[in-house]
Amino acid sequence: MTAEPTTTPAIEFRDVVKRFGDNVVLDGLGFTVEQGDRVTLIGPSGSGKTTILRLLMTLEEADGGLILVDGDPYTHEYRGDKWVRIPEKRRSQIRRRVGMVFQQFNLFPNMTVLENITEGPIHVLGKSRAEAVRRAEELLDQVGMAEKRDAKPNQLSGGQQQRVAIARALAMDPEILLLDEVTSALDPEIVADVLGVLRQIADTTDITMLLVTHEMRFAREVSNRVLMFDQGRIVEEADPETMFTAPTHERTQAFLKAVLDR
Ligand SMILES: Nc1ncnc2c1ncn2[C@@H]1O[C@H](COP(=O)(O)OP(=O)(O)OP(=O)(O)O)[C@@H](O)[C@H]1O
């Protein structure tokens, strides 16, 4: 009898190809993110980091390869003697395990803060309103936004909106949280607030996190692994300490020198 592997990676990309016209953005990309890992993807602008997150949210479709979430193929699977697309219903079930926070917050402008957070749990997860409100209040407390529960998004600063967006993503009980440049649209003095919220999530939950950021502080303070991505492939991976003090690949050395000297 063959022993079962003890853990299945939370995320696995196998030979994933993604093109936009002639632009080959992912060129046979392979990497895994283990359960509970906090992984930061770094790399040059325009290299395809956001595309990786969008593929995981099914906002884009791969042109080749396999994407697995908790070992479940997310795009195609091999059935009989051919590759077939995963039926939409199964895709959306898998997709529900994944939450995402975007650079531009993407809150619903006509809803209050509380409604933004309870909308998904009530209408998608089928939770009762009372239960959704109770959990939303708990999360608003956690991100320091309890006093703003009845405000509309346009009455909030960017940093406050982003904290609500994080609470909204967590309200869906994701196993995996994707964070795409969540502080790029924020003033520098507010970045630390959002960083604090993410550190707290990392310290108090076992959610798997995949972050794309230009803020090397995030990579250092939130993540336990850093992947350097360049020209469609992972060129180096290491723990943050090693990546920032002793990168081995010349592309990583050049990239880190450029961003850290800025
Ligand atoms: N919908 C699209 N249509 C056409 N090209 C696209 C589309 N989305 C992304 N691209 C292209 O794919 C490449 C990778 O973009 P992506 O946003 O994933 O990069 P990135 O590494 O996240 O960049 P940044 O760090 O600047 O956010 C870029 O060349 C971009 O122009």
TrEMBL record:
Membrane topology listed for this record: Peripheral membrane protein
Pfam family, one: ABC_tran
SUPFAM superfamilies reported in the protein's UniProt record: P-loop containing nucleoside triphosphate hydrolases (SSF52540)
Location of the protein in the cell: Cell membrane
The UniProt record lists the keyword Protein biosynthesis: no
GO molecular function, one term: ATP binding
Main location: membrane
Residue span, ABC transporter domain: 11-256
Gene3D superfamilies attached to this UniProt entry: P-loop containing nucleotide triphosphate hydrolases
Keywords per UniProt: Amino-acid transport, ATP-binding, Cell membrane, Membrane, Nucleotide-binding, Transport
Family membership: Belongs to the ABC transporter superfamily.
Protein name, entry field: Ectoine/hydroxyectoine ABC transporter ATP-binding protein EhuA
Organism: Rhodococcus gannanensis
The organism's taxonomic lineage, starting at the top: Bacteria, Bacillati, Actinomycetota, Actinomycetes, Mycobacteriales
